Amino acid sequence: MAVTLGALDALALWRAVTIAALARDGHDLTQRQMAILLTVYLRPPPHTVRGLAHDLAISKPAVTRALDALGRLDLLKRKRDETDRRNVLVQRTVKGSIFVSDFGDAVVREAAGVPT
Question: What is the C-alpha separation between 84 and 40, in angstroms, rounded?
Fold first, then answer.
């Protein structure tokens, strides 16, 4: 069942989830990093730098910079595509899977307190 939120309620939910995420794990992800992370975890693989840039309408260097940060946090990893060495595959990690699952749980918890 879909819940309809007004703009202010939706923003309050976004704020609450963001604050909860920062308090929980301290990862201060940019919107670009979060968009890439959720794309990789919510859409079926394979994921490439080129494909992510296209899907998110951003440049490949912007994707690469975001992946550098996400890789340092061990939320995603990159691997050269053995079948086409020009491609770089973006892969999930255990730590990233836990982060996304916990983030989803935080959204559910915070959404329970939003008036419908």
Answer: 20
Backbone angles phi, psi at 46, to 5 degrees: -85, 155
Please report whether residue 82 resides in a domain. Answer: yes
Q: Can you give the residue range of the structural domain that contains 99? A: 7-112
pLDDT tens string 65-79: 999 999 999 999 999
Give the model's pLDDT for residue 116. 54
Number of domains comprising the chain: 1
pLDDT of residue 1: 58
- pTM, to two decimals: 0.87
Instruction: Let me know how long the chain is.
Output: 116
Q: How far is CA 75 from CA 6, 31, 53, 80, 98, in A?
A: 32, 15, 18, 17, 9
Work out the angle at residue 110's Cα, subtended by the Cα atoms of residues 105 and 57, and round it to the nearest 5 degrees. Answer: 70
